Amino acid sequence: MILSDLQHSERIEPLHPLFKTLFDYVKSHDLLHAEPGRIEIDGDNLFINNVAAHGVPAEKQPLEAHRDYIDVHILLEGTERIGWKSIEAVSNVTKPYEAVGDCALYTEPASAYVDLTPGQFLIVYPEDPHAPLIGDGPIRKLIGKVRIDV
């Protein structure tokens, strides 16, 4: 898991060949005022889910984990809390992993939380089950989906 501000994205861009492409796209487009939905950048290798949602209580948000994609959560507007727990510490599977959708769900509580403000991002890897969209109020965010093996 990596937490930082968009202005410092160049420090982590060398960690994956598509990170720079993602951050350059985000910094050069007004995505806050774009319609919610999927934004294609490099087919299934790199895309963005532009999300307009309402925050939910932590106890109602399950942990999710992915295998094929790294998630890059970028907050545009509002305040968002994201829960985290190590993959080795989760055991209460409510939805086993399905390749379609690249997701497994767990109902146990997170062991740590990160609060994002606009302009910050959180990168979660497959070993990082996470519970996004925790809060009360509207949340506008981007979820960059970066295929691990490109």
From TrEMBL:
Question: Sorted alphabetically, which InterPro entries does this protein's record hold?
Answer: NanQ/TabA/YiaL, NanQ/TabA/YiaL_sf
Q: Which SUPFAM superfamilies match?
A: Clavaminate synthase-like
An annotated GO cellular component of this protein is: cytosol
User: Entry's Pfam families?
Assistant: DUF386
Which PANTHER family does this one have? Answer: EVOLVED BETA-GALACTOSIDASE SUBUNIT BETA, PROTEIN YIAL
What name does this protein carry?
YhcH/YjgK/YiaL family protein
Natural source organism: Candidatus Bacteroides pullicola
